[in-house]
Amino acid sequence: MDIMKVLVAEKCGFCHGVRNAISVAEGILAEEDDVYSLGPIIHNKDVVDRLAKSGLKTVAKVEEIHSGTVLIRSHGAAPDQISRLKEKGLNIVDATCVLVKRVQHIASELEGDGYKVVIIGEENHPEIRAVVGCAKDVVVIADESDLHKLPSNARLGVVCQTTQNPEYVGRMLGAIGRRNFSELKVINTLCREAIKRQESAVRLCRRVEIMFVLGGLQSANTRRLAELCERVNEHTFHLQNWDELDKSVLSGKNTAGVTAGASTPDWIINEFVSNLEVYDHSDG
What we know:
This protein has helices spanning 16-31, 45-53, 79-87, 98-112, 126-132, 166-177, 192-205, 220-232, 266-278; strands at residues 5-8, 35-38, 56-59, 69-72, 91-94, 116-120, 138-141, 154-160, 181-186, 210-214, 236-239, 255-260. It is α/β, with parallel strands linked by helices. Strand 8 (154-160), helix 6 and strand 9 (181-186) form a beta-alpha-beta unit.
């Protein structure tokens, strides 16, 4: 029997913001029946499905909620969405990550100080959409093809999506810095925990033959982990859970690394590692 040696990244799984959002949701669901989440509470289908069984109803729009309690997810919500929820007389419980909340405040303050707000990140990510809603006119820069959106000779106030990696942000700042501007103010809004997870994952995938990154396919921070690992180890696989694993990729491999995004629960990680440790891959 050929057993795999499995190593788990030193830093992986739930971050404080996600753990808090789940805890808040579980607390409300234990006391109330009519509970909604404005968008998936976190980007992990297994967790969302588990909370749905406890009664959490996930909706895409404010208009879909008519009564009860509304949970603002870890990615936050735009001020106009909060205002509309209040107008409906709904009970609002805010589980926005404190670091995301900080980006929202900074964006609003930068605009108040006369800067054109620029966000480095993914335009359609819910965190970014919420931040965009905190200022009147925001430019989102995902890559060099978006640089044409920047106004000429303007005072630019730059923040970034919390889960991006420093190398990418540095590259984009360099590209923005080569444009025509009168002033450039940059505030580092990267999540230190996300950076630690990225560094831990890259260190581990250099030591193993095959690397698994566990987490929701819609999770930006998990995708970032997978992208960084793929650059170092071509045998990197982004999976949501054990059921998605194509066992044939284990053939001939003796050491495996496992990391997980900030929205991946411990039980998903533990189940994956346990199954991998006892899986006989000698015959592929």
